[in-house]
UniProtKB/TrEMBL annotation:
Residues 31-386 form the FAD dependent oxidoreductase domain. Pfam families: DAO (PF01266). Keywords: Oxidoreductase. One of its GO terms (molecular function) is oxidoreductase activity. Gene3D superfamilies: D-Amino Acid Oxidase, subunit A, domain 2, FAD/NAD(P)-binding domain. GO terms for cellular component: cytoplasm. Transmembrane segments: none annotated. SUPFAM superfamilies: FAD/NAD(P)-binding domain. This is Oxidoreductase.
């Protein structure tokens, strides 16, 4: 089980070569053990190093094996919940703080790329267009844009009518959209591997194929055990997001998230003439459907992703649905084949927001990014280390007293299928 590799994806075909990290075969020491080698864990390690601590990352498979090596590479300031909904439920000040944290998260990614020279991540702030799949969705987008402008003073977006969205995307399927400049696209696995390289270069340790299996207490400290070794440490961070059910070491957070499968297909290389017709400004694009689908270019290939009732494993039927949706939106692609496809797990929480906090004095957690976590996991990894050091950052709605479990967790599989089917139905009937 622990030897399984990353799925063969476009990212794996084109990423910066991975640095080899050994398995843990010894009994060693560190200040902080970080469980999970995705953006949360890697960023936490970098923050620990900044504070003069010695971190060690335990990764069950390989660096970037989880969502961090498989995602769509759309970097943005967004949460799964809209800022206007947050303002309605929790007040304008809370929404303003959440907005500020979203921007801080985006800057965090930009700073890492600059500081550690991760040029292969190829981050470009080309903006994102949310494309309305019906009139009602377009009206809601325009309303949301007004609130964001009035409450947050944010003017860096443009409302596009159906014609302008058709010019931008090359598809006549949409009723309008919002172009937001607080977003970029990058190569997710190269970013991940770049962070790992920076951790190693600055004195952190990384062990791959080394799942944390359990902790024990030892003279006021912790010992984290793997199959063939252990690390004695003062503090532990759990950074396992949608992959929190691999071992009992992460039992305390397992029920805080529902792992939801999200899939991506990539076309074969397309002639440059196609990109004079579609996605000509090389942005990222997402739909307003509940079962959201999104698309972007990566070099001369088109990526199309989305969620559905994909279940625990990949299924040919689910990929076929995604491919059909891509061809419906872009009939221009009818002659071109899908060359790679892969999926990964996003971690959904009860209130659709990330969770960060302490399980006990020296054990922290940060997870539940709800499929919008590239920037936020990079930021919260840092804050999780600060919290372990006794700092009290203002993380608004994300800060929790303890991991908050999903009620009726044992019902999650049928619940996911039911919710997915219901959402698909509402999307189909234009609600
Ligand atoms: C298909 C897909 C598309 C996405 N697209 C986007 C996007 O375009 N934009 C965006 O912002 N977000 C996107 N996301 C979400 C984003 O990728 C995640 O929020 C982010 O990568 C979470 O990082 P993480 O480090 O918390 O978790 P992960 O990257 O999932 O890492 C968790 C790691 O923990 C390891 N692990 C688990 N248990 C143990 C154990 N016991 N011992 C040791 N290691 C363990 C796993 O092997 C895994 O590598 C997408 C996600 C998916 C799956």
């Amino acid at each position: 089980m622990h030897k399984s590799a990353l799925p063969l994806s476009l990212w794996r075909e084109t990423a910066t070569p991975a640095t080899a990290h050994s398995e843990l075969h010894d009994n060693v020491q560190a200040d902080v053990v970080i469980i999970g080698g995705g953006y949360t864990g890697l960023s936490a390690a970098l923050r620990a190093i900044e504070l003069g601590l010695k971190p060690a990352i335990l990764e069950a498979r390989q660096i970037g094996f989880g969502a961090s090596g498989r995602n769509g590479g759309v970097v943005s300031t967004k949460f799964r919940v809209s800022l206007s909904d947050i303002a309605k439920t929790h007040g304008k000040n809370v929404a303003k703080r959440m907005n500020a944290l979203g921007h801080e998260a985006m800057s965090c990614v930009e700073n890492y790329i600059e500081q550690f020279g991760i040029v292969e991540a190829d981050l470009r702030r080309t903006g994102n267009i949310r494309c309305a799949h019906n009139e009602t969705a377009f009206t809601a987008l325009v309303e949301e844009a007004k609130i964001v402008r009035e409450v947050f003073g944010d003017t860096s977006f443009t409302i596009l009518d159906a014609k302008a969205v058709a010019e931008e995307t090359g598809s006549t399927c949409f009723f309008g959209g919002i172009l937001n400049f607080h977003a970029g696209i990058f190569h997710p696995l190269s970013y991940c591997r770049g962070l790992a390289k920076a951790v190693l270069a600055n004195g952190g340790s990384i062990y791959e194929s080394s799942p944390a299996l359990r902790f024990t207490d030892e003279g006021g400290e912790k010992r984290v055990h793997t199959t063939d070794g252990s690390i004695r440490c003062k503090q532990v961070l759990i950074a396992t997001n949608g992959y929190s059910d691999i071992s009992s070491a992460t039992e305390a957070v397992r029920k805080t998230v529902i792992p939801f499968r999200s899939a991506i297909i990539a076309t074969e290389a397309l002639p440059s003439a196609i990109f004079r017709e579609i996605l000509r400004n090389d942005r990222s694009y997402s739909e307003t459907r509940r079962m959201m689908r999104w698309f972007r270019r990566s070099s001369n290939r088109l990526l199309f992703g989305g969620r559905g009732a994909f279940g625990k494993n990949d299924s040919p039927a689910a990929y076929a649905m995604l491919e059909q949706a891509m061809r419906d939106i872009f009939p221009q692609l009818k002659e071109y084949r899908v060359a790679s496809r892969w999926s990964g797990l996003v971690a959904m929480t009860m209130d659709s927001l990330p969770q960060i906090g302490l399980i006990e004095k020296n054990i922290a957690f940060s997870l539940g990014y709800n499929g919008a976590g590239i920037a936020m996991s990079s930021l919260l990894g840092r804050y999780a280390i600060d919290i372990l050091q006794g700092k009290q950052p203002d993380l608004a709605l994300m800060q929790r007293q303890k991991p908050e479990n999903i009620p009726f967790f044992s019902m999650r599989a049928p619940a996911v299928r039911t919710v997915a089917a219901w959402y698909q139905l509402l999307d189909r009937f234009g609600r």
